[in-house]
Amino acid sequence: MEFDINNDGGLPNLLYYPYAWTKSASIIFLDAPVGTGFSYARAPEGWPTSDSSSAEQSYQFLRKWLDEHIEYLPVQLFIGGDSYSGITVPLVTQKVLVGIQNNVKPRMNLKGYLVGSPRTDSIIDENSKIVFAHRMALISDELYASAKNSCNENYVNVDPSNTQCVTALAAIEHCVKDLFSHDILEPKCTFDSPQASEGGRRSLQEHPKDFILSPPKITEYWCRTFIYALSYMWANDVRVQDALHVRKGTVLDWKRCNGSLSYTKDVLSVVDVHRNLSKAGLQVLVDR
């Protein structure tokens, strides 16, 4: 399904998407970690979580769900996620694999996993942005060489006293500041807000509910981030929540990105996890 942005008002319409994966697969969408989407904690002590604990919770959910729906046990199992889930997906997959090896019930029919634009390593991911900027000619050869030499090819947690490195990174940031970081070929969209910040413009991705919603009249200038605002309208509609059987009173304000999570990033790299999983004969799809 996809949103119809030509809706004149009220709840955004959904359009049929003929290439939906659900035509050929049964898909479980899990809101994780605790506090994302419509998920919630029943007690205060259940609110704080982390990479490792979230992976364990997702694994236990999968076990319990399959225990209650044993008819799905023969179905091929693929575990997937995108963006920051690139950390937790391989962790969950590894837990499933270990469970199979230890004959834990229910025995899952694990076939592989998939990650899209995944977070993988806190250092490698950040360092690669500078290399990417150079390869895409967003920064000059001279500026890249200056940063590479002065920063010793490490652009994370830079020593503030290394003025040459700090200066080079500031120049790089200036060169790319007007680009959409998720896709450099698309425009970086901002929209007028009734609750505008001092600069008069705010990020639609960060503050979707604060924006006046009116689809751009010129199709060529349509921005994918506009969907974030539409998704906020859709997910917070009472009729939608009733259809999804959301437990009333648990999530009063749905957010695409919940900045109030009590979350600890305790797994900084899953490179070794991927390396271990690559020996298990699983099918793997990595979509950049």
From TrEMBL:
It holds the Pfam family Peptidase_S10. InterPro entries: AB_hydrolase_fold, Peptidase_S10. One of its GO terms (biological process) is secondary metabolic process. GO terms for molecular function: acyltransferase activity, transferring groups other than amino-acyl groups; serine-type carboxypeptidase activity. Belongs to the peptidase S10 family. This is Serine carboxypeptidase-like 18.
